[in-house]
Amino acid sequence: SQKFNKPLMQGVEITSIAKEVWNAPFVLLFHKLREDGELPTFSYVNKAALKLFETTWDEFVGMESRNTAEAEDEVQSERDEYLAKALEEGCVDSLEVWRISQKGTRFLLKDVELWNIDSGEATIGQAAICREWQYEDE
After folding, report:
1. CA gap 33, 89 in Å, rounded
2. What are the DSSP E strand ranges found in 47-105?
3. What sign results for the dihedral spanned by CA atoms 87, 126, 48, 71?
4. Which residues on adjacent β-strands are paired with residue 91?
5. pTM (whole model) above 0.85
6. Which of 30, 74, 81, 125 would give a disulfide with 117, using CB separation of 3.0 to 4.6 Å?
7. Kind and range of the H or E run holding 79
8. H or E element: which one contains 115?
9. φ, ψ at 8 (rounded to 5°)
10. pLDDT tens digit sequence for 51-106
């Protein structure tokens, strides 16, 4: 991503970027920030993320992004802190966060990069990429 001064993918033609990102071996997520006070909801997720979170496009897109983390106050508070930090600083990297699939499988996302997506002067959402994860039972 531009925020980290490195490309999301190398050697990919602009005409095929959507297909390449969809089929990429990394997890890519985007949640849209809401101006109406509602919680952020997912607007994009690639195929690797759907597999990891054990869900479908229709179930995932539109879901509140907080639902990928466990509901405990401590977990949600930690999540809120790094999302706020990224909003303030533009990006956050080297995150390690536990997440839970729609079927209840826990996994650790390693070395997550989180950055703001801007449109003009306004931040409209945040994206995250993760290239490595580990299931709890491994």
Report:
1. 16
2. 91-100
3. positive
4. 115
5. yes
6. 125
7. helix 73-89
8. strand 106-119
9. -65, -45
10. 999 999 999 999 999 999 999 999 999 999 999 999 999 999 999 999 999 999 99
